[in-house]
Amino acid sequence: MTLDDRTTVLPPVPPQAPAAPGAPLDGADGRSLASLEAREVTAWFGDRKVLDRVSLTMPAGRITALIGPSGCGKSTFLRILNRMHELVPSAALAGEVLLDGDDLYDPQFKLTDARRAVGMVFQKPNPFPAMSIRENVLAGLKLTGTRASRSDKDDLVEQCLTRGGLWNEVKDRLDAPGGGLSGGQQQRLCIARSLAIRPKVLLMDEPCSALDPTSTRVIEETMKELAQEVTIVIVTHNMQQAARVSDQCAFFLAAHGTPGVIVEHGDTEAMFSRPRDQRTADYVHGRFG
Ligand SMILES: Nc1ncnc2c1ncn2[C@@H]1O[C@H](COP(=O)(O)OP(=O)(O)O)[C@@H](O)[C@H]1O
Ligand SMILES: [Mg+2]
Known about the structure:
Radius of gyration: 19 Å
Shape: globular
CATH class of the domain at 28-130 and 201-284: Alpha Beta
CATH superfamily of the domain at 28-130 and 201-284: P-loop containing nucleotide triphosphate hydrolases
Bound molecules: adenosine-5'-diphosphate, magnesium ion
Helix content: 25-40%
Structural class: alpha/beta
Distance between the termini: 10 Å
């Protein structure tokens, strides 16, 4: 990233009007929106503690951006939010992750349900290259054992590709291989694939860092649309992107080999224009990281 990416900060999108207190939040598709809350999350790889008592509420139907220098634990935090951290043999964790108040790590909460409810899009687009576009979208159904008729599948493919911002570009070649799409299209295909299993939360780990500016803007527009129906948590190194897309931000830092912590979090506009902590001000203005 260049300094220029970070020195001009555009105003963020205005937050949606808050729902009446106590009212369930409904997404654009009529399903209830879910909040995600991390409480005192601590993570280790072997003996090394990489996150120390990180607490963060990611409100329903909002976009939360995680920012901070490399190595401060953002990806680890994201993987804890959908139980991928435990796939690493040396990994351990303490704390709680609550999806609408239910602890994802409670033994009663099935692992498959946790991963279905909290989807993930990675930095490098990872469609199945030899599979068709259509099969890519439907791939998650097989993995989660969800059955659907041919016409239901057709509807789902169209709906997910539309929500992923890709339908118009691929509707005439749904049987072409996913690997033949451009990088930005592949990333949108991965978003569509994630949406097909109807997650409540979508985690995105630097989803645009391998993409050109035009594809990046298309994905940002897609994210803003999606926030109406799914709660989004995005890791980004691009401060302009954080400012453009997110409602709230959390600034992670791991100083001199200490575990990562959240230095400051809050409303994005406030964090960029009036940071409370000098380290946040230095980071968002591109003075380090
Ligand atoms: N699989 C792993 N095994 C051991 N250490 C890891 C592993 N993944 C990440 N780490 C370490 O954990 C720390 C946080 O990494 P990460 O969550 O990837 O940070 P970020 O996404 O903010 O760059 C780093 O010091 C990194 O080296
Ligand atoms: Mg990372």
